[in-house]
Amino acid sequence: MGDSWRLILLLIPLLAGAIAIFFAFQLMKRYGIPFATSYFYYLVFLYIFGSYSLAGSGILEHLLSRMEVDLKVIQSTQLYAIFLGIPFIALSKFMLLKSTTEFFGLRLSSLFTIPYFVICMGAFVLYGVFVVRLTRFEQGEFQLLIDLQRWVFFGFMLLMYMAFFWTIIILSRRMTDHYEKRFIRLLSLLYLLYMGVTIAALALANLHVLLEHIFFFLFLSWHLVPILFLSLYLEKYHGQASTVQEDFESKLSSFADKYEISKREREVIQLISKGLSNQEISESLFISLQTVKDHTHRIFVKSGVKNRVQLTNIIRSG
Fold first, then answer.
1. Tens digits of residue pLDDT in 243-299
2. Taking the model in full, what pTM does it have?
3. Alpha-carbon distances, residue 225 vs 17, 130, 177, 187, 189 (angstroms)
4. Residue 184 and residue 95: Cα distance in Å, rounded?
5. DSSP 137
6. Cβ neighbours of residue 57 closer than 8 Å, sequence gap 6 or more
7. Phi, psi of 176, deg, nearest 5
């Protein structure tokens, strides 16, 4: 396969993945719903892993092989690229499950969250030890570690998407709206199919170089289909709410200009208006609880209000 075709086959899924992220961002911005926000971050973290670890390692392999670099050096760079991408793939799957529970108005329990990140951190450290031992001390076989990482990836994909599927099946039993139930179950089936096809493409990648590109294409491009379904769903069930939200945004913009509200303080106000607690705002904006309290206090001082209800009413009244 020519160099130009290899480059094109790498750029197409990267472009498709970026388009999916763009549309997800537009949905998040328009509707302001927690599960849409989490789904957006799922796509972002997945894209970082795909572009950095997968596409990056492929580009490095191509460039270094043309420079006639030793095969072990090429394999070492690929192993490190995958290693540094592990946190992003772990975060992406967590955000997918978080989005799923938020769709049903629930939150992921700390009984799941803490063990999940502990296990992911342990796997990250263990993999790093193997990579360092292999690349610096030449203890082990490159091919063995490459095969191991592939099977671990298979297992992780299978575990997370099956968890996603069964979570939806179990929680959707309570839903009375048949259209809504059909939508979320169809979405879960799409991701189950996505998992099966991508795993199959990666498992057969050694047979032909084109299969590697098919895997990468599916890994990033598939999400354009769920985005379409998500857009139709949100328009049907949250379209009117988005119009109200847009009106609130314009009034908030005027309020922020009048009282010299900073960008971060404006984000806090947006979440306050949605009824989120200080703790939930802290988690949503990735800032400390004390920082949220400080921002809220400054907003109250600047605008002369005494509580959250008064703040929201002033903004809504224009």
1. 555 567 778 888 888 888 898 998 898 888 877 888 888 888 888 999 999 999 999
2. 0.74
3. 11, 38, 22, 9, 12
4. 17
5. S
6. 77, 78, 81, 82
7. -100, -25
